[in-house]
Amino acid sequence: MPTVSSEELAAAAGVNSAKLRKDFSYLGSYGTRGVGYDVEYLVYQISRELGLTQDWPVVIVGIGNLGAALANYGGFASRGFRVAALIDADPAMAGKPVAGIPVQHTDELEKIIDDNGVSIGVIATPAGAAQQVCERLVAAGVTSILNFAPTVLSVPDGVDVRKVDLSIELQILAFHEQRKAGEEAEAQAVAEATKDSGKGPDGDVPAVMPA
Ligand SMILES: NC(=O)c1ccc[n+]([C@@H]2O[C@H](COP(=O)([O-])OP(=O)(O)OC[C@H]3O[C@@H](n4cnc5c(N)ncnc54)[C@H](O)[C@@H]3O)[C@@H](O)[C@H]2O)c1
């Protein structure tokens, strides 16, 4: 039975092991002193808490570049998310398979949601269509939306929206890059200034004076 100690997990996660043990106690998971946690049981408990022990049918609306890429991503299934249907407004796409799943027309949206008991919808349409798609999904019974369209969706109470925006992530990296460049320039300026004064970084006079 593979086990893992709270110290090992804490080191891997970069957190304090006492805090980790306390957090796990909320899951009802108490390790055995000197042995640690049974890995398989711990994975089950965390999955159950995250709602991942059940299968979640998901629909993707807007099967363009992004929607097709998401449909082709094999990583959702292993986390318990099953792509139940792909939906697009373009009649020319209806019936065409993407990632082995035939695309269905938006006319079918309500029926698809109902037939598959879908509660999670992914929106990958152009921004201008996203709110209307969102409203149809919600009216059909979807209560969680993952929105990739660059627009803010308004939803009624009880509906959760998560927005994914890779350009924001890039902006954050750009900000860090800019700060790094600023720090480098500052360090260089300090180095230049100390060189010109003939003094060391602490202002001390070098033991050997330059000729
Ligand atoms: N969040 C991010 O990081 C990120 C990254 C890339 C793209 N995007 C966004 O994702 C969306 C899709 O991008 P893309 O490159 O795949 O675009 P795309 O033009 O290739 O695909 C859009 C698809 O949506 C369909 N569509 C249009 N109106 C619809 C409607 N009312 N109902 C259903 N389907 C509809 C179109 O027929 C098309 O197949 C855009 O809003 C884009 O800005 C976001």
Automatic annotation (TrEMBL):
Keywords: Cytoplasm, DNA-binding, NAD, Repressor, Transcription, Transcription regulation
Compositional bias of kind Basic and acidic residues: 193-202
Cell location: Cytoplasm
A single GO molecular function term of this UniProt record: DNA binding
Region annotation (Disordered) ranges: 183-211
The UniProt record lists the keyword Secreted: no
Gene Ontology CC terms, in alphabetical order: cytoplasm
Domain CoA-binding, first and last residues per copy: 51-152
InterPro entries: CoA-bd, NAD(P)-bd_dom_sf, Rex_actinobacterial-type, Rex_DNA-bd_C_dom, Tscrpt_rep_Rex, WH-like_DNA-bd_sf, WH_DNA-bd_sf
Primary subcellular site in the record, as a coarse category: cytoplasm
Any GO BP annotation: response to redox state
Role, per record: Modulates transcription in response to changes in cellular NADH/NAD(+) redox state.
Family (UniProt): Belongs to the transcriptional regulatory Rex family.
Protein name in the entry: Redox-sensing transcriptional repressor Rex
Species assigned in the record: Streptomyces fructofermentans
Lineage of producing organism: Bacteria, Bacillati, Actinomycetota, Actinomycetes, Kitasatosporales
